[in-house]
Design brief:
By secondary structure, this protein is α/β, with parallel strands linked by helices. Strand 19 and strand 20 form a beta hairpin. 22% of the residues lie in helices and 31% in strands. The radius of gyration is 17 Å and the shape is globular. Helix 2 runs antiparallel to helix 3.
Length: 189
């Protein structure tokens, strides 16, 4: 198997692989181009996101600075706001639903590294997709870790570290994030 095939199968892989390095280099260039667009030229920003990402709904905006590892593994629904300094390490897929707001300085990561120093020295990594439902508000300075699914109608409080799945209609906070209380969903019948 290639390192890309291992990565996509959820296996440990080497991120020093030439194909993976080329993919990351392309994403770095795309992000540099995106971040160079006039911050008030929303049409140009949107057009660039459509070329850069795997899927982009309507009314999608990401502020400067934006960084990602691949770009083509990010799928965003309609009515999305990504505030300042959003980083999405999309080694694997990141699915973001409709009506989602993400606060500044937030990190969504699909990649982690081994506890073994020998494996880290060998440039090994492991990745798992992240899924974010509809009607989600993620506060500032939040970290979402690999393999996490966040349900619909969820609020993640500022500064939280989300390391496990979050059920629908929930407010979570803390490090690690824990359920604070249930939320009413006033948009579903």
């Amino acid at each position: 198997m290639t390192e890309l095939e291992k990565m996509n199968a959820g296996m440990v892989y080497s991120y020093a692989d030439a194909e993976l390095i080329a993919r990351k280099s392309r994403a770095i260039r795309w992000c540099e181009e995106y971040n160079a667009i006039d911050g008030c030229d929303y049409a140009a920003q949107y057009a660039h996101l459509q070329k850069m990402l795997g899927g982009v709904g309507e009314r999608v905006w990401i502020s400067k600075t934006f960084g990602c590892d691949c770009g083509k593994n990010i799928f965003i629904g309609n009515d999305f706001t990504g505030n300042f300094n959003l980083t999405i390490l999309d080694i694997r897929e990141v699915y973001i639903g409709n009506h989602v707001m993400i606060g500044p300085n937030t990190l969504i990561t699909t990649v982690g590294h081994p506890l073994s120093p020998a494996a880290r020295r060998a440039y090994m990594a492991e990745a798992a997709p992240v899924r974010i439902g509809d009607d989600v508000w993620i506060g500032g300075n939040v970290t979402i870790l690999p393999g996490v699914t966040i349900g619909n109608n969820v609020v993640v409080a500022a500064g939280a570290v989300v390391n496990k799945d979050v059920p629908d209609n929930s407010l979570v906070a803390g490090v690690p994030a824990r359920l604070i209380r249930s939320l009413e969903n006033d948009v579903e019948p």
